[in-house]
Write a structure and sequence with these properties.
CATH topology: Four Helix Bundle (Hemerythrin (Met), subunit A)
Helix content: 55-70%
Largest sheet: 2 strands, antiparallel
CATH superfamily: dinb family like domain
Oligomer: single chain
CATH class: Mainly Alpha
Radius of gyration: 19 Å
Distance between the termini: 73 Å
Strand content: under 5%
Number of strands: 2
Number of helices: 6
Length: 196
Amino acid sequence: MNSSEACLTEEERAHVIGLLNESASEFLELIADLDDDQWIRKAAATCWSVQQTAEHLVLGERAMLAKITAALAGPANTDWEEEHARKTKFLGRVITDRSQKATAPAALDPHHHWTRGQTVTRYKAGRARTLQFAKEMAEPLKAHAAEHPFAVFNLLNTYHWLLYIPLHNARHNQQIAQALQAGHALAENALKETAR
């Protein structure tokens, strides 16, 4: 297999850049006008707040870009094409499906309690690094791979890891939207109780 065939096509590059931009715009719009209470309120004790979900996104993007960099430093896989198309479709279908619950790896558990401003600054810096990587990367991404901590994904090539970043973002955008809806309902119920 020619290593140039393992490089991103222009269509793949445009696709991942589009997903990175779309998921970032949606995330930033979701959190743009939140007050401090909305930022830290939990819909239930077992749920993450918007702050925790946002922090997880920042930590996750940083970790995934590091995983890509480490995988590219390792040996190439000449049999990358065998699983590539199937896993690309699988990721697009599974990651954004919130009916399938997952527990984050401990390293990506939120614990910093960043303010919204601190989170946005870190998020934008991380996304800028990822976008630059996606725009400029000329290495054969599809020929290098790294293990995913969840067995269902197993070995993902570095193009898959790059796709994973905005898909993971889109998944958690859904979670933030749900948390905000639940928080709004809680606030309305509290107002009704005090009005009695």
